[in-house]
Amino acid sequence: MTRAMTLCKYKYFLPTFFLLACVGCSPLLPWTDGVPMHREVSSLPSESGCRIAVLPFLNDSEFPQGGLLVQKVFAAQLLSSGEHLLTPEGDIVKAYQQLHLLPGAAPTLEQLRIVADRVNAPLLLTGIILEMREGRSEHQTINPQLILEVELRDPASGEILWTMFHRRKGTDYNKTMHFGTLHTVTGLCRQMAEEIINLWYEKGFSQCNE
Amino acid sequence: MRVERNLLLLVFLVLLISAPGVAGAAGAPIAVFPLQELGESRNGVNLALTKELTERLAKSGNEIIGMESMMAFMAMNRIRTPGYLDTVNISRLRRDLGAAFILFGTVTERKERPEARIGLTLNLVRTSDVRTVWAYVNGRSNSEERNVLAIAEPTSTDALEAILLAELLRDWPWQIINEEQFAGALELDSVLLRPLNVRPGGEVSCRVRLENTWGNGQPPRVFFKANEQIYPATVGADGVTYEGSWIAGEDNVRVPVTLVLDWPVFDRTESALLGNYLVDGTLPLFRLELLGAKKLADRRVFDKQVTIIPRMIIRKQLARWRLSFYFEGVERAIGHMEGEGNLPNGFVWRGMRGLEDRGDGDYRIQVEVWDKAGNTYQVTEKVELLRSSPQVELALTHSETEVVADLEYSGKVPLSYWRLEMWTEEGVILTQVEGEHLPISIDMQLPESAEGRGIEGIIFSRDVLGKESRQKVSHFLPSLSELAQQEKEKDDGVSKSWVDEF
């Protein structure tokens, strides 16, 4: 190997390394496979303010207590992303209990309206877990999968204002080798919640820390 | 080598700058609510991780409310579900345990197989406004913690827990907590502690009104703490006013008073400093100086005015004072003056009582003071008022050739100076003499021309108080023959001259 060949070899090493590094640091899957899918049924109330009540998600999956998991993760992410004023979870549970709504049961529009009135929320966040499962991947690792539909509702009527459909699995976030892959349902849910909320902000949902 | 060394230094500086800040101790009490566990947990609670989280937070400098207190609170309020509380119970937790924040958490997943994984959500609620101020969500699995050389990779959920806890402490909202630590759980509406100065053995009372209300919650036992002694407080009809009283100690010390609220059922005690009082048994000693009064032997005398200067021997705050004047032989004060606070620098007395002038005589000046604790002290000084000018008594006797002047002084105030000048009608000086002491007898030679005519003179005197007087002297010197005739008439008992004239 001549000295000229050696120099030529190193000449392409650094640009290649930086290219790989830039790909690895790029944003996580902002928009793939047509999701998140956003739809505006009606405009958000102009005076909704920052207060929002995140209600338990309905769980159509086999994952035990997945509805509570997603509810807590979305509430935390709303606070972290936009410093929204969250209705205490205990107040929501209390309102559900007063309406004899069993865990996992879907409230009617009238019940949603009553809940919103009792917790004094100008905006409701509800949703349904269409799929939540811990799939298996190679080397006995977990590849969580989550399909969500999230809605912003009018507290006065319980009707849907905005809706968002989202679907992800842990390997969607893989960058290189095994790095980037999410292996927990919680981590995947947090990532999806962040993507949904950020998309809402792009669509005009107001942050409270601006 | 130099390049490598600089590179190492740069890396070290970058790591130093990006390292999390050292957390300071925060004084806002944080209640860690038992963590909820979703999934296949037996009872939906994870006390082991709650305990670990509590210890980590306490070690990092947070003020954490004990687990025993939390359990007692949950039992007392029939709370059976971990992970969340409603607004009412959040307020109760603030009221009963003094929690400034409540940390709620949920273990969203926790499984060992096929790979260990754990998920955790936390949210910190500020109890003053029931607002979630911080939230944390994270999940970790073995696969996500792999490193290149596979060194120290976690293999269980316990190891993943440690990673999560370390991460949340790096993200811990120290600023929010530090801002809150200045807001106390006890909110005082009004405090009335009296007296603030008390004599040893005196009674001290305190009344406190709180803004806190206990509602149907567990009311505290309330005490006042003073001088390391606990005194029970009685609650008023409104339920938020507490009163108590106690006897002050014997030592002259400043005593802080603290309100103590005790919830034995929660093993919790809150206290607030209310103020302090001074136990004071020292007398307000002082003395009086009388300026303008001349000290004569064992008495003080003045003629125009006397300035009374009080000098505090023990300097202390006074509550009030009184200045009184007594005249000799009269029991009641002929005049007095009172004031609040400390004594004035001085009083000037011109020997008058309003428009009434008692005249010369012996007076008693009495000053009484009371300090703020009620200790009293008085000083009395006697002083004599003498306004009259010195009067020198002169007696003249004369023979054929001379006149003898006898000067005497019987006033109460000694003379400091006198002068006698005598002269004939023709202006012949008979004598000029001065001195400090009386009596004295002065012989004056008469010229022949003076017989049957008059002599004149002046006596000037000044006493030790400075009062001066000038007394004119005018005396007729009869002739010797007339004097002999007068003597004879005295002997006969009949005046010849009268008969002639008759």
Give a quick rundown of the structure.
The complex is a heterodimer of chains A (210) and B (502). Chain A is α/β, with parallel strands linked by helices and 210 residues long. Chain A has five helices and seven strands; from the N terminus they run H-E-E-E-H-E-H-H-E-E-E-H.
Structural account:
The complex is a heterodimer of chains A (about 210) and B (about 500). Chain A has a single domain (about 35-205), classed as Rossmann fold (3-Layer(aba) Sandwich). Helices cover about 35% and strands about 25% of the residues of chain A. Chain A has five helices and seven strands; from the N terminus they run αβββαβααβββα. In chain A, strands 1, 2, 3, 4, 5, 6 and 7 form a seven-stranded mixed beta sheet that branches. In chain A, a hairpin with a 6-residue loop joins strand 6 (about 140-155) and strand 7 (about 160-170). Chain B folds into four domains: about 15-180, 3-Layer(aba) Sandwich (Rossmann fold), CATH 3.40.50.10610; about 190-280, Immunoglobulins (Immunoglobulin-like, Sandwich), CATH 2.60.40.10; about 285-385, Immunoglobulin-like; about 390-485, Sandwich (Immunoglobulin-like), CATH 2.60.40. In chain B, about 20% of the residues lie in helices and about 45% in strands. Chain B contains eight helices and 32 strands. Chain B has helices at about 1-20, 45-60, 65-75, 85-95, 155-170, 175-180, 480-490, 495-500, and strands spanning about 30, 35, 45, 65, 100-110, 115-125, 130-140, 190-195, 195-200, 205-210, 220-225, 230, 235, 240-245, 255-265, 270-280, 285-290, 295, 300, 305-310, 320-325, 335-340, 345-350, 360-370, 375-385, 390-400, 400-410, 415-425, 430-435, 440-445, 455-465, 470-475. The longest helix of chain B is centred in the N-terminal third of the chain and has 17 residues, at about 1-20. Residues about 5-25 of chain B have low confidence and may be disordered. At the A-B interface, helix 2, strand 4, helix 3 and helix 5 of A face helix 4, strand 5, strand 6 and strand 7 of B.
